[in-house]
Specification:
CATH class of the largest domain: Mainly Alpha
Order of helices and strands: EEEHEHEHEEEHHEHHHHHHEE
Largest sheet: 3 strands, mixed
Low-confidence stretches: 6-17
Number of helices: 11
Distance between the termini: 54 Å
Strand content: 5-15%
CATH topology of the largest domain: Isoleucyl-tRNA Synthetase, Domain 1
CATH architecture of the largest domain: Orthogonal Bundle
Number of strands: 11
Radius of gyration: 28 Å
Helix content: 40-55%
Shape: elongated
Strand order of the largest sheet: 8-7-9
Length: 310
């Protein structure tokens, strides 16, 4: 245990006792009325009581993972006393290493302030859903900063992540319908796997892995514009893209159109095409506005016109 920053006599609020020595921590605590009321007290050789909060975690970990686990995560504020106490009691009981790797995440902030229940600025899944922040967008947000650095949640940061996953979704939809690739596309795919995996193996550097994915998307879009015919290159690139997204998982779940809506969109796009052919751009623009009002975005390119949900 690293006792350089602790003092004999200091109080540990979570266990509410005054320590005789700075290295002490509670393994078993005498039952209090509130413990009895919650049916959280048991008979033991040391009297009726309950486990200390450190012991609870060791017991759960050993039940589900055995004497040794591969990775133990937690916030930096739990390094001492909680995690050091877990190590001491677990390894004292088993004689084996408790955890092979420890990942301690820095604090999550809300608009620059530490997120905490007592302050009342904790964001919940329900809050995020109310802001239309998808699970994919939240993962993108978390991966945008290394876990050893503080992460600040703000409306601007969440909006940037929403835009980021929209870019990934748009590319994935285009990639799915592509008919061929190029040798350069295959090289971009090789670089993606190499760079993203190297980043993740380097202390879970998720921001660098995310950067590798967006670099690939930029390069791949340029190659898809060339409309190559190398099916093998396209297939290899799809495998690489799926492999890395299988780890990051930042493609939002696709919104599906019902048959009636899809038929209506196709009809309006056909009418827009006819209007553009006769150079009636006012009518064509009016149809675009009509589509946007229904939440439909369109994109014109050498392949024709594609539509998607905005």
């Amino acid at each position: 245990l690293d006792t350089r920053e602790i003092r004999t006599g200091a109080r540990v609020a979570q266990d509410d006792y005054t320590k005789e020595n700075a290295q002490d921590f509670a393994l078993w605590k005498a039952a209090k009325p509130e413990d009895e009321a919650a049916a959280a007290a048991w008979v033991s050789p040391w009297g009726r009581g309950r486990p200390g909060w450190h012991l609870e975690c060791s017991a759960m970990a050993m039940k589900y993972f055995g004497a040794t686990m591969d990775i133990h995560c937690g916030g930096v504020d739990l390094v001492f006393p909680h995690h050091e106490d877990e190590i001491a009691q677990s390894e004292g009981a088993t004689g084996t290493q408790f955890a092979r790797f420890w990942c301690h995440g820095e604090f999550l902030l809300t608009d620059g302030s530490k997120m905490a229940k007592r302050i009342g600025n904790v964001a919940t899944v329900a809050n995020l859903r109310e802001q239309n922040v998808s699970a994919a967008a939240f993962r993108h947000f978390v991966f945008s900063t290394h876990y050893r650095k503080q992460l600040n949640m703000s409306s601007d940061a969440l909006e940037a992540s929403l835009e980021g996953v929209r870019r990934v979704r748009d590319f994935a939809e285009r990639f799915e319908t592509a008919s061929g690739g190029t040798a350069e596309l295959a090289r971009a795919a090789d670089d993606l796997v190499r760079d993203a995996e190297a980043a993740l193996f380097d202390d879970l550097n998720a921001p660098a892995a995310l950067g590798a994915l967006f670099t690939f998307i930029r390069r791949a879009n340029a190659e898809l514009d060339r409309r190559g015919d190398d099916a093998a290159a396209l297939g290899a690139a799809r495998v690489a893209f799926a492999r890395i997204n299988g780890v990051l998982d930042i493609i939002p779940e696709a919104q599906r159109a019902d048959a009636d809506l899809a038929s209506w969109v196709d009809e309006r796009l056909a009418a827009r095409k006819e209007a553009r052919a006769r150079r009636d751009f006012a009518s064509a623009d009016a149809i675009r506005v009509e589509l946007e009002a229904r939440g439909i975005a369109i994109e014109d390119g050498p392949w024709g016109t594609r539509w998607k949900f905005a």
